[in-house]
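TICKET #2291
ISSUE: user wants both folds in one file
ATTACHMENT 1:
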Amino acid sequence: MSSPVQTPSSTVTATAAVTDNVTATAGVDGKGILITEPAMRQLGTLMASQGGDKVLRVGVRSGGCSGMSYTMDFIEGTGILGDDETYTYEPAGAPSFRVICDPKSLLYIYGMQLDFSSALIGGGFNFTNPNASQTCGCGSSFAV
């Protein structure tokens, strides 16, 4: 199932086939940050529990076993910077939410897939980054 992705200037529906026959919703250019339906539902639920005008900031920082680690944090909508890339996701059966990423982080995670698993072992959010030359066993850090 595809979902509209909105930016301040346009709305485009873009999907990409990913592993295990799961479809992920992408940014306007057909890539950006891919988010699978299970991850969108979980993020929509978490966003609703945050209350107010919150957005999800996704990025990278130095650190972790492989050199860089992923960051995800809910921030106030007023914290969006002028050069942030903004995507709006509208998952089926869950509230819509916005994801933002700063331009520097986007260089490292462009095309990344964010998935969610409710498995008891290895569950939670999982990152699949096509730009990573090496990843850590925990899946939360990488090298380029």
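ATTACHMENT 2:
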Amino acid sequence: METLYRFPGCQVDRVGHGSAAGVVLGVRMEGTGARCPSCQTPSTAAHGSYVRRPADLPAAGRVVQLELRVRRFCCRNPECSRRTFAERPVRLLAAQARRTRRLATAQCAVAITAGAKAGAGCSSPWPCPPVPIPSCR
């Protein structure tokens, strides 16, 4: 399944059925640890995890919903002000993004090529959320 759905820096754990015409992919980050964003100290001490659900490009006319398992770690540097931090899937998502980089790139290409109003109508057959034009910078 990883050859069909390629996610940079991540590994597909499971594939399931979502809504009427959708696919749900369980994805996790590769690697065993992460670096603290404040002090850059590496850590493998797990603190917990949570799930993010960013939108992705459709595949074979079906909606693709990611369930990205993001792990939290404890910072082992006693002088660091940050006690816990989450791993950051920077190759897959921008910070605090609700859609993958490749979906954002595709939506921006449609918006720029066709123009704002025409781009919104052109992308309506895509089973993914529309993008406001200011985010296409």
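RESOLUTION: both attachments delivered.
EXTRA DETAIL ON ATTACHMENT 2: Strands lie at 10-17, 22-29, 34-35, 42-43, 46-52, 63-74, 84-86.
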